[in-house]
Amino acid sequence: MAASGTAAATVTRWSRTFVAVGVGFFLAWQVAVAAGLPRAATVPLGVYGFVFHVVFGKAYTLVPSYFARELAVPLAPAIQLPFAVIGTIGTAVAGAGVGPPAVGTAGVVCWFVGVIVFVAAIGWTVRDNPTGRETGTGDTDAHRRRVDRLANAAVPVVVAYLLAGSALEVARALGLEPTIAPAAGPATTHLFAAGTAALLVFAIGFRLLPRLLVADVRPALAAVVLTGGGVGPVLLAVDFRGGPVFSLGAGLEAVALVGFAAAVTDLSRQSDRDRVGSRALLGAAGCAGAVALLGLGFAFASAGLLPTTAYTAHYRLAVGGFLALTIVGISYRFYPPAVASLSWIGDRTARASITALLGGLALEVAGLLGSVPALVGPGRWLSVLGAALYAAVCWTIFLERSSLTG
Predict the structure, then answer these.
(1) How far apart are CA 243 and CA 185, in angstroms?
(2) Strands, E, within 52-153: which ranges?
(3) Helices (H), 176-218
(4) pTM
(5) Which superkingdom, per the lineage (predicted)?
């Protein structure tokens, strides 16, 4: 029992470290975008650095429990973290055009090694329950088992997307790219952002949010969202900006995003728990709908109907809106700002961070889609302020918890 408690404490500590590093990358990403760095540099900071570091950190604690297991390799987060950090920084530096090509290659290889550690640890943990039929759902939540099983079944698909995207990046860096592989750049990014990150948000969201909000999600809606979110990204990637396959993928991904937004909105409507992260979750739902609409526009609208800046708006709404605001909203429930002992850190600071993130994104997207460049810069710097406040809240709580637990 003592050994089990020590292992759990180790996983918790390194999980929190992963999230703390991810929060730092969130701030770095917002600053890099506001400073005008190229997208090849900012995408790794936002997707690898922020989204995936937080996803990895929380997955180490949540996924095993959702599969009624304990993490089989408690030190896996500690082993993966340096590879993930170096991989993110190396890829971002290469994207900025700094240093020799070997920097980018080293970054991609380190990232892949970290992914292998993560997949091996999670895979070995759930090896005798790969589809998640055993859900760890208690008798009081028995009515949620159907949705829990649907959500668990999406996790192997998430892992497949993560492995595929990472392996393709390594193959390209080493000149071994297969001829049938998706195109580099945005196509591969969709394997990560849509196939891995968004699908995992759908899966964990359907398990976590009903319990946090004390509400229920409809199993049929969960099935539609998880199916569309599981199939759509691969169709987008293999025929990126192509013909019918790309359009079908865009349609499925749009259904998944709108369905998840509807689920979050309905859960919030059912819940009487109006806490500090609620506004961020509703904002994330709105951004999911906007991402879906823009994606459908790219797939079905005639050429020239959307401005070229719409692609940047789509990327910012997806990563800085849907994914980021979901993470912010949920993290404020895992780490309540009110528990901080500093007088200037609390619910008011957290609400200010959400307001700044929502307001900054709204200004930026309005400027990008409305061809009003004067709005874009202020919007991005307002997002920097929101990220700084979010980091201040999270890091304060992390430091205080670390001092308490040693």
Answers:
(1) 18
(2) none
(3) 186-190, 199-213
(4) 0.94
(5) Archaea
